[in-house]
Amino acid sequence: MAKIDIEEIETKWKKFWEEEQIYKADLTVKEIFSIDTPPPTISGHMHIGHAFSYSQQDFIARFRRMYNGSVLYPFGTDDNGLPTERYVEKIHNLKSESMSRADFIKLCSKTLKELTPDFIQDWKDIGMSCDFEVYYSTIDKNSQKISQASFINLYKKGYVYKKSFPTLWCTECKTSIAQAELEDKEGKTLFSTLKFKIQNKDLLIATTRPELLGACTAIFVNPKDTRYKTFIGKKAIVPLFNFEVPIIADDSAQIDKGTGALMICSYGDKYDVEAINRHGLKPRIIINLDGTLNIEPYKGLKIKDARKKILEDLKNAGLIYEQKEINHIVNVHDRCSNPIEFIATEQWFIKLLDYKKELINQGNKIKWYPEFMKKRYENWVNGLEWDWSISRERHFGVPIPVWTCKECNEIILPSENKLPIDPLEIKKICPKCKKEAIGENRVFDTWMTSSESPQIVSSLTNNKIKIPFSFRPQAHDIIRTWAFYTIVKSFLNENKLPWNDIVISGHVTLKGEKMSKSKGNVIAPKDIIKEYGVDTMRFAAASSKLGNDSDYSENDLITGKKLVNKLLNASRFVFMNLKDFNNTRPKTFEKLDELFLEKLNILINKTTDDFKNYEYSKVKQEIEQFFMNDFCNNYLEIVKKRVYQGSVNEKHSAQYTLYTSLLAMLKIFAPIMPFITEEIYQEHFRIFEKSKSIHVTSWPKYKKSSKDALDELPKYQSLIDVLEDVRREKTNMQKPMNAECNLIISEKTYDKIKDMIEDLKSVTNAQEIKSGKEFKISF
């Protein structure tokens, strides 16, 4: 048999699907299954985690296309904001600050135009059945328009405000960030107990951030702490810097933590922000936006360098009482892993804290798959401590469409028919005081636009498809960002749900560890595809349970490759014996065929329900077991001789069952393994079936089983049990499977399978089968 050229098969059908527009949604029909596809970021090459998660959502899209008829499955790319900006800086070896905003935007746009076709091809290559003509970029003009219109609407409704406030700030990226962009990072640091002075006595205070000594505004002690009762209301001298700060009684100082005395600085963390506001303290701002200190003698030093130098000076001055190394968790920016600071800057915010209850209710209205993932959403909402900071000090992004009058601070918004708009490119005069207004120079947080993905796709259909979409597929690590912000925007803008269902996938790990470039354990899908083929990779992706991380295993690929070969070989064998088949139903069925079709009917029912519930791993397990064991190992072997030598009706019954069951199994495999199923369908079934592709055929229909049919089904298993007994005995006695034999089976079993005795004789090569007390075989 000729070697299978998988690459040729994949190339052929990708071209066919595109030319024939197999995956184009029919927007004229009443019921359309709509998918809010996650737009991948153009910031590097696809990794195996992408390939698996996007394959998993594609399983559902392909199933729904066969089951529902029309599926809106768009494709977008997330080109907006910091990830793209960083990537462009990297490949061009420059910093965005070295160019004007206009020039850098031109460079980003030019780079994206060059990269996008090859980038999208990666997704086509893994068999994604998107309608790639329904395409958007989160930085294109239409997306900018929708994002800006959303902002204007929220501002008019009173959900948006601007305020100067200590906010989360990344000194590496030089921009404000939102709470959702924080990650915890554990590392070693020094925990130093320092000597403050009060009335010539040492007041010991422990800290991990000695670089903030110059920003100290007060010392808190617990009013119940007897050690410090006499100090309350007095002043202490800050070591090295020698200025005085008040000692204040405050319940936030924990008696049993450190020395019990707490250094309040502007700003070490959110508690410092709250404490300074609560007591009306005057902040001392010593950290610049770029992460350097502005206080002598440490002016110009980066935070890390300043910490080292200050500890050195404290040690030399004898101001360290005790020091030890500890494991310490700090908040870092998820984009660059740089520790965040709290720096007072003017930013734009969307109100969240006032609507926690409503946002929890919105989450409860959505069906979560798996359901336990909803708890992550609820925990996130309940744990919110700040409103959403939506402005970013970046070059590349969607401009905030606002002008502010420098005389009277009037906020000026553009009319929506002028969108998208860049306030830096257009001058505005204040309608109140007739003075020139200043265009906003910041851009939106990237999630401000990504959270509009359903509305962006809706606009591409001329708003024929509106929210709620049918479902949103995404990974669990962005529940707090993409899922949350999309729910927020749809609720605040339209008081609607963005989708009915949300389906959460996990990550792919290697030997239990998350894959990352720094660890050198990243696996490229292209390498897997080259060796095993796309269908095999997708088969492995289907092994992952919904919502769970899965460990990459080559065993799944080996099994998948064998399955591809088995599908081809079994199909060729079946059709070798269907040359005289006229694709009609027989007048009567042989009992074995009748029972096998009932077993197939149950499989159709189960896999349909599993796909509806997004349980693709269960479908994969069920169809693989049925095809390999029930069909290939058993049914095919049993009916071989009948197909060759049976009477007209016996042969017809087997042929119909072979044709019907193989087609149904191919359809169930098709969402997971689209290329090989298309190859088999086109080679063998297309001449009989109406649809031009297996992927637009109707999903196999389940016929409700009668009680009589279900009562009869155990007879099939009884036959298989006898067959397995025979095979085992022949193996034990080192006899070939086609060795002639005589069988005795129990009366009870004989009575069950009496209508299938001839088929049992055929497959076991038994010359005689009798009933008796127990199973016996003789040669």
Task: Walk me through the structure.
- By secondary structure, the chain is of the alpha/beta class.
- It folds into four domains: 6-77 and 126-152 and 448-539, HUPs (Rossmann fold); 183-333, Isoleucyl-tRNA Synthetase, domain 2, CATH 3.90.740; 554-704, Isoleucyl-tRNA Synthetase, Domain 1; 713-779, no CATH class.
- The protein is elongated.
- A four-stranded antiparallel beta sheet has the order 6-5-14-16.
- Helix 2 links the parallel strand 1 and strand 2 (71-72).
- Helix 14 (534-541) crosses helix 15 and helix 15 runs parallel beside helix 19 (674-685).
- It contains 23 helices and 30 strands.
- The mean pLDDT is 93.
Describe the structure using short key phrases.
779 residues; alpha/beta; Rossmann fold; Isoleucyl-tRNA Synthetase, domain 2; 4 domains; four-stranded mixed beta sheet; 23 helices; 19% strand; elongated
